[in-house]
Amino acid sequence: MYRSRLFIISILLILFFIPGFLSAQELKGIQLVKPQMDSGRLLMHVLKDRKSSREFSNRKLPIRVLSNLLWSACGVNRPDSGKLTAPSAKNWQEVDVYVATEKGLYLYNAQKHRLDPVLAQDIRALTGSQSYVKDAPVNLIYVADYTQMGTAANDVKDLYSAVDTGFIGQNVYLYCASEGLATVTRGTIDRVALGQAMHLRPEQRIILAQSVGYPKK
User: Fold this and answer.
1) Domain for residue 14, yes or no?
2) Strand ranges in the chain using DSSP code E only, listed in sequence order
């Protein structure tokens, strides 16, 4: 009886005092809507207006905008092959896009165009050292999963995951320029602290983060 009580107490301590232990169960997934193929501006105008912005309104992104944003980043544009809007070396598709919002942390599932729940906790402040990251409604975190890259040498994995992340980040920049959103990519991150909060495996590497939101007026 004594051991049973100790076991129950231990479980309760885990549930109530270890952040994120039941995080995925507490946070519901989000089914995104189909991307709007008839929206957007001329490419040359978008390239002219592409810029980095470091001031964000706390206005939330509507589901339509968030859906278009993530599809533009690395959504499936060829359903017959599962290939994405962003190039990927050897089609490894090793870069995962995590989405940090006020409600919690999600993982973008490109194949099903949805947000899968990861953590019922607002970790936006951990996605960078800059003061504005906690206010941006969305912070994208680009994480390379080295297990997706087979037996390639680590320096090759480092190179290609960085390049592939750059492709995704530029797609986000272009979408934001088209839609009048503010965005900036960031590399100044406490990767150890953020990785622990996200419960990443050792084979997962945080490459960059990118804040997205409406401009602050």
Assistant:
1) no
2) 30-31, 76-78, 83-84, 95-100, 105-109, 114-119, 138-145, 182-186, 204-213
Q: Do the domain assignments include residue 19?
A: no
Domain that holds residue 183: 24-213
Name the percent of the chain lying above pLDDT 70: 88
Distance CA 68, CA 118 (A): 21
Least confident of 16-20, 22-26, 28-32, 47-51: 16-20
Cβ atoms 194, 128 nearer than 8 A: no
114-119/105-109 β-pairing: antiparallel
pLDDT band (50, 70, 90) for residue 26:
confident
Is 131 inside a domain boundary? yes
Mean pLDDT of 150-159: 96
List all residues 6 or more positions away from 100 whose beta carbon is below 8 Å from its beta carbon. 122, 123, 124, 127, 138, 139, 140, 141
HSE-up of residue 172 (Cα within 13 Å, Cβ side): 30
The pLDDT confidence band at residue 5, using thresholds 50, 70 and 90, is: low
Structurally, the chain folds into a number of domains equal to 1
Closest CA to 184 of 128, 114, 101, 105: 128
Averaged confidence pLDDT in the chain? 91
Burial of 32 (0-12, 13-18, 19+ CB in 10 A): buried
Q: Which two tokens stand for residue 14?
A: 């885990």
**Inter-residue contact 132 to 139 (CB < 8 Å):** no
In this structure, the strands spanning 182-186 and 138-145 are: unpaired
